[in-house]
């Protein structure tokens, strides 16, 4: 799942529902696993599949006219319990970006820790995105992490988005927290050495 992130241009999967919680993203019965592999198969499980395992034709992930690695979701995405498995499922399915007007804080951080970029946009921009995608399922969105902009290619409109500087660095370099520490081992060791000197 570790992939360097720069500029992504992709068509989108629209999920115009508000308050999508982590239990809807990945139902609790799948939380026994401790390995990230395979979670994408059960993303939105109860919305994607009937009880007999057959596909629900009317759910957007089962509609072949939609594709892409960007999920566009309604306000307050990822609310509910703090399970990291929800971010595992989103990343495991192949999404690189989730766009919404508001994310639950813990879920937002879980996405960042799993190399998925949560992009917060204004309500009007989100509505315009949904409208563009509804008119043309192949509508593309450009997400530029270095410049922190998101652009609706159908209308040319862009918005700036915020991201923590440390997380931006990690995403752009394909680093998790451990990788970052290893990369900065010399600095950490120098700091420790200096700290011992201060304590004497």
UniProtKB/TrEMBL annotation:
GO terms for cellular component: 3-isopropylmalate dehydratase complex
Reaction(s) catalysed (UniProt annotation): (2R,3S)-3-isopropylmalate = (2S)-2-isopropylmalate
Enzyme Commission number: 4.2.1.33
Source taxon at top rank: Bacteria
GO molecular function list: 3-isopropylmalate dehydratase activity
UniProt xrefs under CDD domains: IPMI_Swivel
Keywords: Amino-acid biosynthesis, Branched-chain amino acid biosynthesis, Leucine biosynthesis, Lyase
Residues of the Aconitase A/isopropylmalate dehydratase small subunit swivel domain: 6-123
DNA-binding listed as a keyword: no
UniProt-listed Pfam families: Aconitase_C (PF00694)
GO biological process terms, semicolon-separated: L-leucine biosynthetic process
Function, as annotated: Catalyzes the isomerization between 2-isopropylmalate and 3-isopropylmalate, via the formation of 2-isopropylmaleate.
Summary of subunit composition and partner proteins: Heterodimer of LeuC and LeuD.
The family this protein is said to belong to: Belongs to the LeuD family. LeuD type 1 subfamily.
Protein name, per record: 3-isopropylmalate dehydratase small subunit
Species of the source: Hallella mizrahii
The gene coding this protein: leuD
